[in-house]
Design brief:
Elements: E1 2-4, H1 9-14, E2 18-24, H2 29-45, E3 50-55, H3 60-65, E4 73-78, E5 81-88, H4 93-102, H5 106-115, E6 119-128, H6 132-143, E7 148-152, E8 165-166, E9 176-177, H7 178-192, E10 195-198, E11 202-206, E12 211-214, E13 218-227, E14 231-233, H8 241-244, E15 249-250, H9 253-256, E16 264-268, H10 272-281, E17 287-292, H11 301-308, E18 313-317, E19 319-327, E20 330-337, E21 343-348, E22 350-353, E23 357-359, E24 389-391, H12 403-421
Parallel strand pairs: 1-3, 2-3, 6-7, 6-13, 7-10, 13-24, 15-22, 16-17, 16-22, 17-18
Antiparallel strand pairs: 2-4, 4-5, 8-9, 11-12, 12-13, 14-23, 19-20, 20-21
The structure holds flavin-adenine dinucleotide (FAD).
Flavin-adenine dinucleotide binds at residues 128-134, 151-154, 158-160, 163, 166, 168, 202, 228-231, 273, 277, 360, 363, 393-394, 401-404, 406.
């Protein structure tokens, strides 16, 4: 692995054949998550592809010149030409491998992949999901000196990391930026000593044996498992939604609202999330039309009062979307008036959908008892129907899904487990 400065870019990257270049920064959790993957892949591919790192903060001019907008960013070069995909954010090992393999002939790729040695590691507790529930369980277990690993298919933080502001988490007088709150939770747990394996692919899981395979080669075993995989946004399931997902249709205001400065936006939904997030989107967009199926919003009073006081937001009640289409730069949303059954079209620059969530149980739903909505049933210690398998946070069957309730579940499971293991 070579560390370079801008002055060496020409020689060490552009004139060096096959290269992968990592723009990293300090105080950058996704960069920290990438570092061990980059190093281990450098050992595997290093004879054929040059692995180069550059510190972005000290090499800003080059980073601007190459339009590198976030850290880490991986760029792949073949004889001075950028090739493959630019990878940023929570970079998965499998995505790096995919791009490295594109640089090499098939025979070479086979030689290298044959060298990948499966690894096995053992822990007392394995936590799946590093949102508030999983992070809290990790903290309590670590403080109880229980050898614990946190595994996440994305970066730590869960939904909090993409919530623009949290005003109801106790201990903070002012509203907190969601990413800071989740960052602090994650750092507290990491500093205690909990092991992290994040931005990984889960290849398979065996709950009975309490074994998981990550990135196709890394087996992790544990005496106990805590499932803290949370929820994902519901899709509308209507024509055009999948095709336009990420191309004008979004499920995350924090991630995407900033791209709608002075633009018109449609928001689907009428619960707390839809109302709160519309208020946030209005900091950027010039006009928001909220489409909701009932004759009144279901959000709480405080959220509704905020909405009523916001001149940029108007409501189309008792209407339901039927399809989305792209027309040039615009998204056309067809909505049905549920009273008259007439179809109207709404033209906007983007659509945000906030119509509730579904539990992330795909990997375990045939093994565990679930409620009628598919959430995992637990007892008061957060035990599931399978011995040594616990579940916490939004993924479990319960009435209220909040950061505080996820944190409480994580605490309970961790204390129960620590007592059993001791
Ligand atoms: C837009 C929005 C705004 C919100 N605002 C607030 C608020 O202001 N206040 C409040 O108290 N609550 C709020 N909530 C609710 C709150 O965010 C959740 O209750 C809380 O995050 C639940 O924590 P969790 O740890 O159970 O799950 P999550 O936060 O959902 O985290 C689950 C984690 O599991 C990971 N994961 C998923 N599948 C797997 C897998 N197979 N293997 C490994 N990891 C996996 C995910 O990547 C994620 O990191 C909001 C939610 C949303 C969507």
């Amino acid at each position: 692995m070579t560390e370079i400065t801008s002055a060496e870019f020409e020689k060490e990257v552009l004139q060096s054949g096959k290269v992968v270049l990592d723009f990293y920064s300090s105080e950058c959790p996704p960069c920290e998550a990438l570092a061990p993957k980059f190093e281990s892949l450098a050992k595997l591919y290093g004879a054929d592809i040059k692995f180069v790192k550059i510190f972005r903060q000290k090499n800003r001019e080059l980073s601007d010149q190459l339009v590198v907008k976030s850290s880490p960013t991986l760029i792949f070069y073949d004889n001075g030409k950028e090739v493959g995909d630019r990878l940023t954010g929570g970079i998965k090992r499998s995505d790096i491998i995919l791009n490295l393999n594109k640089l090499l002939p098939e025979s070479k790729v086979k030689q290298i992949t044959d060298k990948i040695k499966p690894t096995v590691s053992e822990f007392d507790v394995m936590i799946l999901g590093a949102g508030p529930g999983g992070l809290t369980a990790g903290l309590y277990l670590c403080q109880a000196k229980v050898n614990t690993v946190l595994i996440d298919i994305a970066l730590p933080g869960g939904h909090v990391a993409t919530t623009h502001e949290v005003s109801n988490y106790p201990g903070f007088i002012e509203p907190q930026a969601g990413y800071m709150l989740s960052h602090n939770m994650s750092e507290q747990t990491k500093l205690c000593g909990t092991a992290y394996k994040v931005a990984v692919d889960v290849t398979s899981i065996d709950l009975d044996k309490r074994e998981i395979i990550l990135d196709e080669y890394e087996t992790v075993k544990a005496k106990k498992i805590i499932i803290a995989t949370g929820t994902s946004p519901n899709l509308m399931g209507i024509p055009g939604e999948i095709e336009l997902k990420g191309k004008g249709i979004s499920y995350c205001a924090t991630c995407d609202a900033k791209y709608y400065g002075d633009k018109e936006v449609v928001v689907i939904g009428g619960g707390n999330s839809a109302v709160e997030e519309s208020d946030f989107i209005s900091k950027f967009a010039s006009k928001i039309t909220m489409v909701h199926q009932f004759d009144a919003f279901t959000a709480n009073k405080t959220a509704q009062e905020k909405l009523a006081a916001n001149p940029k937001i108007s409501a189309l009640l008792e209407h339901e979307p039927r399809s989305f289409k792209r027309d040039g730069d615009k998204i056309i949303t067809e909505v049905e008036d549920l009273k008259t059954k007439k179809i109207k079209t709404l033209t906007s620059d983007g659509v945000f959908i906030f119509i509730g969530m579904k539990p992330n149980v795909q990997l375990f739903k045939h093994k565990l008892k679930l409620d009628q909505w598919g959430y995992i049933k637990t007892d008061e210690d957060m035990r599931t129907s399978l011995p040594d398998v616990f579940a916490v946070g939004d993924v479990i069957s319960k009435k209220y899904r909040q950061i505080t309730t996820a944190v409480a579940d994580g605490t309970i499971a961790a204390i129960a487990i620590a007592k059993e293991l001791n």
